[in-house]
Design goal:
α3 (87-146) packs antiparallel against α4 (152-203). The chain is an alpha/beta fold and 284 residues long. Mean pLDDT is 89; it is low at 1-24. It has a 7-stranded mixed β-sheet with strand order 3-2-4-6-5-1-7, with helices on one face. It has 6 helices and 7 strands. 58% of the residues lie in helices and 11% in strands. Bound molecules: zinc ion (ZN). Zinc ion binds at residues 9-10, 12, 237, 241, 247, 257.
């Protein structure tokens, strides 16, 4: 149901700044980059410890591939990893809440539709019984009329049948009212459900690209992620930029410019590793 949510994971820094960094500052392939947490927005519902843990998992992707240290979490370091709240994250959370609401509403509609079906069955059974009794009664009346009238005993029995028929008709009417009540309730629920579907689709109506994170290689900014895998991919990608890697053309690679189904687990591909080896002059 969720419409396209295209994500540009990672803005690139201005080229001049990158050259400046490369020319005058450390070479991150050689010197360990120490980082700290800078801005940390708690609306992401993640603890600081978990965020640090995710960053460490991301850095180790590159470090395991190269079998050397690149990054280290050292409180007080100038290099900051920032977790910054964004409209996109707001939209995402609203969408997730709505998904839950829609799930609940759907369950409630399904159980109501079961109740509706049972009510219809009860009504139809009762109506059938009524019609059979009525037919029998009419046959009896016709018979006795053709005989020029019923004897006292039969007449009384027919009176009793008439009363019983009236009661049965009342029961049928009550059951029908129940069916209609449930149908009405169902319609209201379906209407509310559809309203929420419209709101939900509207949230993601335009396939939009946005910056989920970026780096100028003096800091990493994280703006939005949907689940831990996306955060991981994003962090690995930004650390790749800090190491000096550019984007690659392989959509399955972490260093591809978009987060997509192929790279969403953040696993480095041969292309990513070849880029690392090339940029950091590692022997393959
Ligand atoms: Zn990028």
């Amino acid at each position: 149901m969720k419409l396209v949510r295209i994500i540009i994971l990672y803005g690139m820094l201005g080229l001049s700044l990158m050259l400046f960094w490369n020319a005058f500052l450390r070479n991150p392939c050689r010197d360990v980059v120490q980082y700290d947490i800078g801005i940390f927005d708690e609306r992401f519902n993640m603890s600081r410890e978990d965020f640090i843990h995710q960053i460490q998992l991301a850095e180790s992707s590159w470090e395991d591939a190269a079998e050397q240290e690149f990054f280290e979490y050292v409180p007080g370091s100038d290099f900051k990893v920032n977790l910054i709240w964004s409209d996109e994250q707001e939209r995402l959370y609203k969408g997730n809440d709505l998904e839950q609401t829609l799930g609940t509403q759907q369950g409630s509609i399904e159980s109501l539709q079961n109740r509706y079906q049972s009510a219809v069955n009860r009504y139809e059974r009762s109506k059938k019984e009524y019609e059979q009794k009525l037919a029998q009664y009419e046959d009896d009346v016709t018979y006795w009329n053709s005989q020029g009238g019923a004897p006292e005993e039969e007449y009384q029995a027919l009176q009793d049948d008439a009363v019983s028929l009236e009661n049965k008709a009342g029961e049928v009417k009550t059951l029908l009212a129940q069916v209609n009540r449930i149908a009405e309730e169902n319609n209201q629920k379906v209407e509310r459900y559809n309203d929420n579907v419209a709101v939900y689709n509207n949230l993601f109506a335009t396939g939009h690209e946005f910056d989920a994170g970026n780096t100028d290689r003096t800091e990493i900014n994280v703006y939005s992620y949907d689940g831990i895998d996306e955060l991981h991919t994003l962090l690995v990608h930004e650390f790749g930029h800090v190491l000096g890697l550019d984007h690659v053309n392989d959509p399955a690679s972490v260093m591809y410019y978009l987060l997509n189904e192929q790279n969403q687990k953040g696993v480095l591909t041969d292309t990513d590793i070849a880029a690392l080896q090339s940029v950091c002059n590692l022997s393959s």
